[in-house]
C-alpha cells in the first residue's frame, strides 16, 4: 500500500505543479513506478488466496488507486495543454482499467480459490517480474530523466507493464481455464475465443519487446513509441474481452 501511496503522491505533484523541472521529474518517475503498482496489486490479489476477506480489500485498494489515476492523469494532460478528446480518452481508459480489471482479477482469484490452487510458483514468477521491473526502472533513471527523456521512459514503462499483464493473462488462460500450453502450441486445439486470448497475450509480449528495444535508444522516435502504445492498448482491450469470456466459461463448468 505504501508503494501505491508514493506513486499517487508523485502523480499528484506532477499534475498540480507548474511547468518546470519538478513537474517533469515527478512525471517521469511516476511513469516508472506505476507499472510496479500493477504488480503490487496482483501480488496482493493472488498471493493471499487462503483469506476470503483479503479479496474485498484488494478490490477496494485497486479501485481507489485507479480512481486517483483516472482523475489526476486527466488533470496532468490538461495542464500540458492536451486537446479535449485526449482528456476524455485518458479518463475513460483509466476508468476502464480500474473497473474491468477489478472484476476480472477478483473473478480469477475466486476461481483459483475454488480450485484450491495455492501453487507458490505463481508468486515466485511475479516476484521475479517485480525484480526485473525495478531493475529496468533504476537503469532508466540512471540514464537520465528530463524533457528529452520522455519517449524513452514511456517505452520503458510499457515494457514494465507488459511483463505484469502477460503474467496476469497467462494465469487466467492456463491456470484457471485449464488450457494445455503444449497442445495449444503443437496441435492448435483451441476454440476461437481461447485462440484470440492467446493471440492478444502474445501481441502484448511483442509490444513489450518492441518497447524494450525502443527504451534502449537514447532518443527513440515519438511516433514509434506512440504506435507501440496504441497497439498495446488494443491488445489489452482485446485480451480482456477474450480472457474474461474464457474465465467465465470455465467458472460455469
Describe this entry's structure for a reader:
The protein has one domain. The mean pLDDT is 85. Helix 2 packs antiparallel against helix 5, helix 2 packs parallel to helix 6 and helix 6 (150-176) runs parallel beside helix 9 (222-251). The longest helix has 31 residues, at 84-114. The two termini are 35 Å apart. The chain is 83% helix and 0% strand. By secondary structure, the protein is an all-alpha fold.
User: What is the chain-wise order of helices and strands?
Assistant: HHHHHHHHH
Counted by DSSP, the helix tally is 9
What's the main sheet like?
none
How large a portion of the residues is in β-strands, by DSSP E? under 5%
Instruction: Give the assembly state of these chains.
Output: single chain
Rg calc: 18 Å
* Helix-strand makeup class: mainly alpha
In round numbers, the mean pLDDT is 85
* Beta strands, count: 0
- Total domain units: 1
Distance between the termini: 35 Å
Q: How would you sum up the global shape? A: globular
Considering DSSP H and I runs of 4 or more, what fraction of the residues is helical? Answer: over 70%
Which regions are unreliable across 5 or more consecutive residues at pLDDT < 50?
none
Transmembrane segments: 31-47, 59-79, 85-105, 126-145, 157-176, 197-215, 227-248
Keywords: Membrane, Transmembrane, Transmembrane helix
